[in-house]
Amino acid sequence: MAFRFRIFKDKTHFDFMGVHKLTFALSGLMTVAMFFLLFTKGLNLGIDFTGGLMMEVKVPAGVAIEDVRGKLHGFSHGHPTIQDFGKEAMLIKVPGKEADSDTQKAMYAEVQEKLGKDVEFRRVEYVGPQVGGELIKAGLWAFFYSMLAIMGYIWMRFEWQFGVVAVFALAHDMFSTLLFFLITQIEFDLATVAAALLVAGYSINETVVVFDRIREMMRKYRKMPMGELINMSINDVLTRTVMTSMATFMAMASLSIFGPEGIRGFTYAMLVGILFGPYSSMFFSAPLLTYLKLRRTPATEKEEDNGGGKKSKPVAAT
Amino acid sequence: MLHLERWKIFLIVLVSLMGVAYAAPNLLPEEQKAALQASVSPWLPSKTINLGLDLRGGSHLLLEADMKTVMSERFSNLASDIRDEFREKEISYERPQPTPNGVTVMLVNPQRDGEAAERIARKLEKRAAVTLDAGGKLSLVMDESAISELQRQVVDQAIEIVRRRVDESGTKEPIIARQGENRIVLQMPGVDDPSRVKALLNTTAVLTFQLVDEMAGDGPITSLGSERLPIKGGGSIVVKQEKLIKGDMLTNAQPQLDQNGQVAVSFQLTSLGSQRFCEISRNNIGRKFAIILDKQVISYPYFREAICGGGGQISGNYTMKEATDFALLLRAGALPTSLTIVEERSVGPSLGSDSVQGGKVASIVALCAVMLLMFASYGLFGLFADIALLFNLAFIFALLSALQATLTLPGIAGIILTIGIAVDANVLIYERIREEIRHGRSVMSAIDMGFQQALRTIIDSNLTTLIVAFILFSFGSGPVKGFAVAMSIGIVTSLYSSIMLTRLIIITWLKMAKPTTLAL
Hints:
The structure holds two protein chains of two kinds. By secondary structure, chain A is α+β, with helices and mostly antiparallel strands. Chain A is built from eleven helices and four strands; from the N terminus they run ααβαββαβααααααα. A four-stranded antiparallel beta sheet of chain A has the order 2-3-1-4. In chain A, strand 2 and strand 3 form a beta hairpin. The radius of gyration of chain A is 25 Å and the shape is elongated. By secondary structure, chain B is an alpha+beta fold. Chain B has helices spanning 6-23, 30-39, 53-56, 67-88, 110-124, 144-168, 195-202, 271-283, 320-334, 349-402, 409-438, 443-475, 478-513, and strands at residues 50-51, 58-65, 93-99, 102-107, 129-132, 137-141, 175-179, 183-189, 207-211, 226-230, 236-240, 245-246, 250-257, 263-269, 289-293, 296-299, 311-315, 339-347, 406-407. In chain B, helix 4 (67-88) packs across helix 5, helix 6 crosses helix 9 and helix 11 packs parallel to helix 13. Chain B is elongated and about 105 Å long. Chains A and B meet through helix 4, strand 4, helix 5, helix 7 and helix 9 of A and strand 18, helix 10, helix 11, helix 12 and helix 13 of B.
């Protein structure tokens, strides 16, 4: 047999259920930490949400951030913050109400005057305060409807218990992504919200694959204890989970390394999501299923053999 | 699952080839793209992907019309019109007052004047509900639909003004569209410093009526106090510089049928305006006057008679649409709406092309990495998946081009994410085949079962992702929408390429190689 790259040589027998109390505790701890940080430290909200002015300037080689900071010190309009942004580029931001159109004009002039003619304005973004508020609202609605739609879909295709667990899994993913942004204080903007929602979609994808296997196993092994059955299902799809996560992770990693600076926050959110998505489906949502009374469905071995593609709704067991 | 009818094979091959063909024009250099688009029919592969403003450089402005001020101006104008009319008809009144949704006025003698007053009020504002209470209070109230109708008109006017301003600045291919109730989106590709346009947007529209200098010919201007102005739609005309009527003397304008049943534009003037207009028209019967909006003559009718009724009617061989546009311009000049910039995103061309470059490199690296991973893990079958992946990318580009969807920076991220997710279906299928082999099935049966069993999982898992993408599309704004579009297209094409195309490749291979063991 030719060489094959294999993460697991053969069928795995990890005991996911065995550690579920520990991982539940971890998830709980993470949630508490997230809320704690959210209310104490808060997210580093981008101007998409706070409103404000942001400029990306290209500076000549050799100009350090301290130089710019020093030169813009005592700026007459608002209080700009300056940060490095990739090679020879910097972000200058004036948050919220300080940033009116006069500030922008004055900034242009002042930056050009103080840093010389070599400065190139590469990007200017201004978000008015009312728009910022609307964007937050739209983001929250999008999140809410995603939850609802996913729960509805899974409910329809599986049993209600799966739908409920899927929503918990979604919240789990959101919380872990938020926690990451709270700890790193990477800017949280509109693109990040999109990334977070996609992480949710991606993680649900992961969860559905596990659910699907659990459903299949439930038809096959009607007498097997739920915990054992779930464990076996997770192990069965483990190679696939790892393979897909690796492929997606590699794709996103190459984007965050070689891709443009402008979507870095987005790719970080995705990378975290790709790592946490499988975690939540293996260590959180699947074990959570055992706590909800699932109906066992009657199905014969024969039916399973030729009816794999069937989408018939399982009949309640007596 | 392992049998494909001939027509299906034909269809899969055809779709795949079309995908490649429609994606191909994107690889051409810029000049050839344009040449190709000019020479072939739009149904043939010639369209290329539209780059968003963040990738090609440009400015995106979101403008908000100041409705509050506009409405209060409207209603105070209405109040003063009422005052004028009442005075003329000798109706005694007290305190005409604008309210948030109309005007109220007290009648001193409601028994005597009530009916006449109501009639006047109805005439002045047809959209308002007019009521007279027992205490003699006459109120004009516009309901929500009337107000939103009015607001729509105001935004239409503002859009017209924005369009003129942007054209003035020489910007090419601007996109101007209404957004929501009181906002206007203005996109200007290639403009990375919108300060000129912004300055122009800040200037209010100037509308004047000036007499045409009939002595001047086509040659140079001879008389002092005259200037040559361009005419809307071409040509120019010499007008006298004295501004007879200014925009603020105009209260309204709308298209109307005149007594001969011809389309005309009627306009109403304030009392000062109508006094002036009356005098001017009486002294200039038979002469032309120019209606000038922002240094451009939009029309130059002549006075047929003295016009002293507080308004006038301009007849010409107008079509209904022309008259509507004309009235819109008059209103725009009469009641300029102040616009504030509530959002601005400008990207310089160098950043845009850097982003495209970065996106290209990242895509290629991602593609190579994923392809290698698939090959290393599944050998020949991995190669099959890699071929499907390449086709998948072609499909994405083909669809983006054919639909003329706009590719934004987040869109690029969406495509790269798709590269990773696209192989998921293949992984699911292959893992299932491996499992079936472990259960002791034959090659054919294992592959057959693998496809069958994995299909349901693939559909379920991809549909959930697709749902999220749709929701992102409906709730997200600009950049997020771009991402959602790329993502949804990616999911659909990857389903096709990993289920249909890979299956075809594997079936063909099975027929040709007739393997007895599976190197998977």
